[in-house]
UniProtKB/TrEMBL annotation:
Protein name, UniProt field: cyclic-guanylate-specific phosphodiesterase
Localization: Cell membrane
Membrane-topology descriptor: Multi-pass membrane protein
Location (main, coarse): membrane
UniProt xrefs under InterPro entries: CSS-motif_dom, Cyclic-di-GMP_PDE-like, EAL_dom, EAL_sf
Segments crossing the lipid bilayer: 252-272
């Protein structure tokens, strides 16, 4: 019975529904992303705007304050302390000589006189807003369009000087709702200079300058100024920020929609391609287009062949080859992988059964996918095939990747059952998976295969160059064997050997070969690469091949573990290689007859 989730997957996994889903999903994702971008762009634009307006205002504010302080100092220096015409004349002179002093006045002992008619100084409406350096400061807190009231008033003793709003307004235009505030150092109150009261309460320790803050949703920006007494801050209306966000968002929306449509289109194409590839793969098994190739594995110290990895190839009717990296993941997602693994097992034994019988030290390793290890199916099938061909279970090993260990418990159980039957278990592409290394202690495993990426990094100046030696050390501590994959250069082989890796596989020794080429290679008996003196002299003894550690067999019998002598390897390799281009795939020989697998199942 088909699982309901499987049925749902199959009904949705069609070009149009998938394209629609992809369009909707990417539209949602891009909407969120666009909002994030619009928000941050708008905040940045708002910050830059407040910063430049604030700096203009600060410049003017300090000019005004400077003149007010100068005016007070001048008045302090003159001797008159009574409201008579001489003092009024002094007040008028100070006001006249300083552009930013709107009014100068004297208030003491019930007397009040001013530089401006009618010469009576205005009464301050409230106590000073803040004090600093023996000066009292009043900040104007009105938005009234009247220019006359003091925007800023300073007092020292009986003298007061003030500037008008106009002197500050021409540095910054608050008509769009901008408010300018002064924060005395150490205070949590922002006092309005050009804004409607009341003052704002700000959080103590809130970001000091640079960043834009939101106060009740309104953008609030503190200028970095270096005045020891106060800091200026600007508050913009909330609508301004929203308007900026909307403007950015409207710019990004068409791009987002276009990308979502492109995502949908790409998904449509991909699903179409995969469906047609899936359909073709269905027929490929029937039409015998899938073929098995064998990449030899050598004992690194002695360079003798100990076995091979069976690798699948798919030659399409037009002669083109499809890489297993394309069709295996597809077969895994459609469930066709079971039939492929079964086919591979049967093919390996049909093609190489007699070779394995006559070379009991040789083994072939088979790649298993997640669904092959999540059920106990493979053990029984292999058992029947081995019995039919008279091959020992130690001669078939199974490779699983860390990605294939999705259900760790079931995988452990089934791999342990395979080992109990006498098969070896290898972890393929070790180090590239996401699993925790702790699984190694619980998993029934005999050998780790170091991924090509780590072999490539060997000796390079890359962060991963030490991974391969590290894996070897770890494997030794866990009493596991090590095979290094993707060896292309002699230095890599030597280095791995000196680090203690047991076996190697790669184009340096041989690419994936057809069954007949592999037989020829083994029949020839030549070592995999010219054996030069082993530098360390560490391992002169012939190999204890992987299969030698199988339970039914005694360990490492040097003479019998190695393959008898040569045939010209390079010539054989070139003729028999399936290596067209980098992936080692090339011409394919005719098919041997195959017994139906269904009989075995
Ligand atoms: N550049 C370079 N490449 C080298 C060298 N030596 C070996 N290789 C390639 O590295 C891959 C090794 O196999 P893998 O890690 O098991 O990775 C395999 C395996 O995970 C999967 N695969 C292949 N056949 C089967 C199969 O029958 N069943 C399952 N489940 N997976 C398979 O597909 C993957 C790719 O297989 P291939 O394309 O045959 O690619 C093979 C092999 O041709 C080298 O020196 N240089």
């Amino acid at each position: 019975m088909q699982h309901p989730l499987g049925r749902l997957y199959r009904s949705v996994y069609r070009p149009w529904p998938m394209a629609l889903l992809a369009t909707l999903a990417s539209a949602c994702l891009l909407t969120l992303l666009g909002l994030g971008v619009a928000l941050s762009q708008a905040r940045e634009a708002q910050r830059a705007d407040l910063e430049s307006r604030g700096e203009r205002f600060l410049l003017r504010f300090e000019q005004v304050l400077g003149q007010l302080r100068q005016g007070l100092a001048t008045l302090e220096l003159q001797p008159l302390r009574r409201c008579d015409p001489g003092l009024v004349e002094s007040l008028q002179r100070v006001s006249f000589e300083h552009r930013f002093i709107h009014e100068a006045s004297f208030v003491a002992d019930g007397q009040r006189c001013s530089s401006r008619p009618p010469h009576a100084a205005p009464e301050p409406a409230r106590p000073a807003d803040f004090h600093s350096q023996s000066l009292d400061y009043w900040l104007n807190a009105t938005n009234a369009p009247d220019e006359d009231p003091a925007a800023l008033m300073l007092a020292h003793g009986p003298f007061r000087v003030s500037s008008s709003r106009g002197h500050l307004l021409d540095a910054v235009d608050p008509s769009d709702g901008l408010g300018v505030y002064l924060i005395p150092r150490g205070s949590t109150q922002a006092l309005p200079i050009l804004a409607a009261p009341p003052s704002l309460t700000i959080l103590p320790g809130a970001a000091d300058g640079a960043a834009l803050q939101l106060l009740d949703g309104q953008p609030f920006y503190r200028l970095q100024g270096n005045n020891p007494d106060y800091q200026l801050a600007l508050l913009a209306p909330r609508a301004q920020l929203l308007q900026r966000i909307r403007a950015c968002w409207e710019r990004l929306l068409p791009v987002g929609l276009l990308l979502a449509l492109l995502g949908g289109g790409a998904t449509f194409r991909l699903v179409c391609q995969r469906q047609s590839l899936g359909g073709e793969l269905q027929g490929a098994l029937r039409r015998q287009e899938l073929q098995v190739y064998y990449q030899p594995i050598v004992h690194l110290a002695s360079r003798r062949y100990v076995g091979a990895e069976a690798l699948m190839r798919w030659q399409r009717p037009d002669g083109s080859l499809t890489s297993p990296e394309q069709f295996i993941p597809l077969a895994e997602s459609t469930g066709q992988i079971r039939a492929i693994t079964d086919f591979l097992l049967q093919e390996v034994l049909e093609q190489l059964g007699d070779l394995l019988r006559s070379h009991p030290e040789l083994y072939i390793s088979i790649n298993l996918s997640a669904c092959d290890v999540s059920a106990p199916r493979i053990g029984a099938l292999t058992g029947r095939l081995l019995a039919r061909h008279g091959v020992r279970p130690e001669q078939i090993a199974f490779e699983v990747t860390e990605r294939g260990l999705i259900d760790l418990q079931a995988a452990s159980r089934n791999l342990a059952a395979l080992r109990a039957r006498g098969h070896r278990v290898l972890i393929d592409d070790f180090g590239t998976g996401y699993s925790s290394l702790a699984y190694l202690q619980t998993l029934p495993v005999d050998c780790l295969k170091i991924d090509k990426a780590f072999v490539d990094a060997l000796g390079a100046d890359a962060a991963s160059s030490g991974v391969a030696p590290h894996i070897v050390r770890m494997a030794r501590a866990l009493r596991l064997k090590v095979i290094a994959e993707g060896i292309e250069r002699e230095e890599q082989a030597r280095l791995l050997d000196s680090e203690g890796a047991d076996y190697g596989q790669g184009w340096l020794f041989a690419p994936a070969l057809s069954a007949s080429a592999f037989r020829e290679l083994i029949g020839g008996g030549q070592p995999a690469a010219p054996l030069s003196p082993v530098p360390s002299g560490r391992r002169q003894a012939a190999p204890g091949v992987l299969i030698a550690s199988a339970p039914a067999r005694s360990r490492a019998s040097p003479a019998s573990d190695s393959i008898p002598l040569p045939g010209p390897l390079r010539a054989g390799r070139q003729a028999a290689s399936v290596g067209a281009g980098e992936r080692g795939m090339g011409h394919l020989p005719g098919k041997p007859a195959r017994q139906s697998l269904e009989n075995d199942l």
